[in-house]
Design brief:
The structure holds two protein chains of two kinds. Chain A has twelve helices and nine strands. By secondary structure, chain A is α/β, with parallel strands linked by helices. Chain A folds into two domains: about 5-145 and about 300-325, Rossmann fold (3-Layer(aba) Sandwich), CATH 3.40.50; about 150-295, Aspartate/ornithine carbamoyltransferase (Rossmann fold). The two termini of chain A are about 30 Å apart. Chain B starts with a strand and ends with a strand. In chain B, strands 1, 2, 3, 4, 5, 16, 17 and 18 form an eight-stranded mixed sheet that branches. An eight-stranded parallel sheet of chain B has the order 6-7-8-9-10-13-14-15, with helices on both faces. In chain B, strands 11-12 form a two-stranded parallel sheet. The longest helix of chain B is centred in the middle third of the chain and has 18 residues, at about 210-225. In chain B, about 30% of the residues lie in helices and about 25% in strands. Chain B is built from twelve helices and 20 strands. Chain B has two domains: about 1-55 and about 370-440, Urease, subunit C, domain 1; about 55-360, Metal-dependent hydrolases (TIM Barrel). The chains are: A alpha/beta, B alpha/beta. Chains A and B meet through helix 4 of A and helix 6 of B.
Chain lengths: ~325, ~450
């Protein structure tokens, strides 16, 4: 079971957006195509379309976030939805209000869409299983599991520069073990037909049997980056050192930090990406982050269009789907 | 007046009995096989034509949630569930609240069960005070108060010196130590087996080494202390091999497995199915095969329910935050009989793992039907097919991954001390077979 079943409605349209795993290529392309049409909205003087007028979107973030929550908020507002942001504190004791209690309370206020982020894997799916049929859920990151809109904006950004995924070699570098972004990216790139996906990390930051996701594993940057078209750097949480997962910042940067020198192994027109926020001098050198190959800021811009696309497909109903 | 169970297929693995026999019960004990004693006055007769008659089942590990966790289940409900499932004797781990680490607690639980007048309960006493892994309990007193063994339940004894002394002290009184072999650091905050499923779902993982490091440490201590120890609910192939090797060398160790480990693997977690959240975790196909072989080969001698009833909310949480455990009493016999259906075990072998083998590990004179033994009897229809449904469970905890499974073999009568404590109502025949059928 992949969890994909619950994401589609009886007509085969997207109803929830929880995981990339198990989605069809057509669905991913539809999200990307619809997102293209929304890019333009951000450049207009009146940055709004009336698609979701009268709909209520609740951003329910049980885990702290500024950027992701903001882009979801802007996306919903550009679609003319009413948006409420909530950051309920998750009490550590089991006596606290559960995720489902919170959702049930808000649902009673006739919410149409919940954007859910939680530090526990499977949280958005749990919510999706327990809301009434007319309510949609977007997973804005669940533990280490998936962060599907992030992966969609990444492949959207790649497609702007490399329209053909077939010949694409992509390297994902860093803390794969704890990364929900990496898991979603791997699924998205596989579904879209990328030629090769490489993971580059020390063994402490690689999950067991990750090769079975259809990736090649490298432990060093030199061979891992050779001839790649895209490098995606992952954020390294500084607390990983306490867990003895890495030795020191210096050693990590020396081995896995992206510098111009290491980047020279890749194709000259390589695209450099990072889901942010970046740790300059830890996983990426400033010269690369701000350099000509970097797409880090376009990722942020594209994030709004892609999230608008997902929201529109979930709530825009049949009309939206038929247009595309 | 006596009770006669007539024409049944009697299986008493302790005495190699496996055939058609009449069983005469009198005054709470088995009076005779086949030949009616002279002073025996037949009162009630149970016609067991086509049914299997075996000793009442002995479950070596079931949590009944009293005291302290009454919102999950009550002694009354769980004993009812046990009896309806053919279980007449249970041993309960000490991790109640308060912990069973004093004679008073041990006696209180037995007394409560005694008042209810159904299944027997054997408490396992705490190995360390409050299961904190620091100070030894008054084991001699716990022994006197009826504890059949001592254990630290699922709590680790981190300090190896404390563990060594606990084993030495327990063996002073010839008490068996029940072990949950697990390295607490490798366990960490893990909730599933470390493998492809944990990778795919991004769940904190428990490596196989968490169990093997625990087993290796404990075996080394057993070797030097000579303490008689029992490994509870093994989950990995490697740990089974280590225990087999230790037994081969003559170390005084036994082991059990939870029934669900013989049927499920990590793949059954599917997409965050919290009903499959158990500790130790479900592991790979290879581990499951090895556990099955170990039951067949006699390395693992007992199958237990590892019964952990929960309230509904306990499983309505993100996987890692849901509470581990399965309400397993009512699937203990069905899952074990499935091993017969799948041709792994013979019927007598299967029944041995649920009766006289666990009774031997507990050191109690039970799980057999020799004349003079307590008349604790389970009678089941080995051919009856039925669908296990959550809504029809007797236990207060309806947390089960086996909802909708079809089982073959269903309990019809349960006797404790010669009294019929559970009897399924006969239902009309649905097929050409003339055998009476019973509804659960």
């Amino acid at each position: 079971m992949t969890g994909a079943e619950i994401q589609y409605d009886a007509e085969g349209g997207l109803h929830h957006f929880l995981t990339i795993e198990g989605l069809s290529r057509e669905t991913l392309l539809q999200i990307l195509d619809v997102a293209e049409t929304f890019i333009d909205v951000g450049h207009r003087e009146i940055k709004k379309v009336p698609l979701l007028r009268g709909k209520t979107v609740v951003n329910l973030f049980f885990e702290a976030s500024t950027r992701t929550r903001t882009t979801f908020e802007i996306a919903a507002k550009r679609l003319s939805a009413d948006v409420i942001n909530l950051n309920p504190l998750r009490l550590s004791t089991s006596k606290g209000e559960t995720v489902l209690d919170t959702v049930n309370n808000l649902e009673a206020m006739h919410t149409d869409l919940f954007v859910v982020r939680d530090s526990y894997s499977g949280a958005a799916y749990l919510v999706a299983q327990h809301v009434p049929p007319h309510v949609s859920i977007i997973n804005a990151g669940d533990g280490r599991h998936e962060h599907p809109t992030q992966a969609m904006l990444d492949v959207f950004t790649i497609r702007q520069h490399r329209p053909d995924f077939d010949n694409l070699k992509v390297a994902i570098v860093g803390d794969i073990l704890h990364s929900r972004v990496a898991r979603s990216q791997i699924h998205a790139l596989k579904i879209l037909g990328a030629e090769e996906i490489r993971l580059i990390a020390p063994k402490t930051l690689l999950p067991t049997e990750v090769e079975r996701l259809g990736v090649t594993v490298f432990n060093d940057m030199k061979s891992g980056l050779r001839d790649v078209d895209v490098v995606i750097m992952l954020r390294l949480q500084l607390e990983r050192m306490q867990g003895s997962l890495i030795a020191s910042e210096q050693e990590y940067f020396n081995l896995y930090g992206l510098t111009q020198e290491k980047l020279a192994q890749a194709r000259p027109d390589v695209l450099v990406m990072h889901p942010g926020p970046i740790n300059r001098g830890l996983e990426i050198a400033s010269e690369v982050a701000d350099g000509p190959n970097s797409l880090i800021l376009s990722q942020v811009t594209n994030g709004i269009a892609v999230r608008m696309s997902v929201m529109a497909l979930l709530l825009g109903g049949q009309s939206m789907r038929k247009e595309h | 007046m006596g009770l006669l169970i007539r024409n049944g297929h009697l299986i008493d693995p302790a005495h190699d009995v496996n055939g058609k026999h009449d069983l005469f019960l009198n005054d709470g004990f088995v009076a005779a096989l086949d030949h009616q004693p002279e002073d025996f006055v037949v009162g009630r007769v149970i016609d067991a034509q086509g049914l299997v008659v075996c000793p009442g089942l002995v479950d070596i590990c079931a949590r009944l949630r009293e005291p302290g966790l009454e919102h999950k289940a009550r002694l009354e409900s769980e004993i009812q569930a046990a009896v309806a499932a053919g279980v007449t004797r249970l041993s309960v781990p000490p991790d109640t609240n308060p912990v069973i680490d004093t004679p008073a607690m041990a006696q209180m639980i037995q007394q409560r069960a005694w008042q209810l007048g159904k299944a027997f309960i054997h408490p396992v006493g705490g190995l360390t005070k409050n299961l904190e892994g620091k100070f030894l309990t008054d084991m001699a007193a716990l022994d006197d108060a009826g504890c059949v063994a001592v254990s630290n339940a699922l709590q680790p004894v981190r300090d190896t010196v404390v563990m060594r002394r606990a084993m030495q002290y327990a063996s002073t009184f010839d008490l068996t130590v029940f072990l949950h072999a697990e390295d607490p650091w490798l366990r960490g905050n893990g909730c599933v087996h470390e493998g492809f499923v944990s990778t795919r779902l991004g769940l904190p993982a428990i490596p196989e080494a968490a169990e093997t490091v625990g087993v290796a440490r404990d075996l080394a201590l057993i070797e030097t202390t000579g303490a008689r120890c029992h490994f509870s609910h093994l989950s990995s192939a490697r740990a089974v091999e280590m225990v087999a090797e230790a037994r081969h060398r003559g170390l005084p160790v036994t082991a059990d497995v939870a029934a669900h480990q013989l049927h499920l693997t990590e793949n059954d977690i599917g997409f965050f199915n919290t009903q499959c959240h158990v500790i130790p975790p479900l592991r790979t196909e290879r581990d499951r095969e090895k556990l099955r072989r170990a039951v067949k080969d006699g390395v693992i001698t007992a199958i237990c329910s590892d019964h952990q009833p929960h309230e509904t909310d306990a499983k309505l949480a993100p996987f890692s935050e849901s509470e581990p455990g399965i309400s397993g009493l009512e699937t203990l016999l069905p899952l074990t009989l499935k091993l017969v259906e799948e041709k792994l075990l013979s019927l007598p072998e299967a029944i041995a793992t649920l009766t006289h083998s666990p009774a031997r590990i507990l050191g109690v004179d039970s799980g057999h039907l020799r004349p003079g033994a307590a008349a604790d009897v389970c009678i089941f229809d080995p051919e009856q097919k039925w669908v296990f449904e959550r809504e029809r469970m007797v236990s207060r905890g309806r947390n089960t991954p086996f909802h909708g499974w079809t089982f073959k073999g269903r309990v019809t009568h349960v006797l404790i001390g010669g009294e019929v404590v559970h009897e399924a109502a006969p239902v009309a025949d649905r097929d050409e077979d003339a055998r009476p059928r019973y509804a659960g």
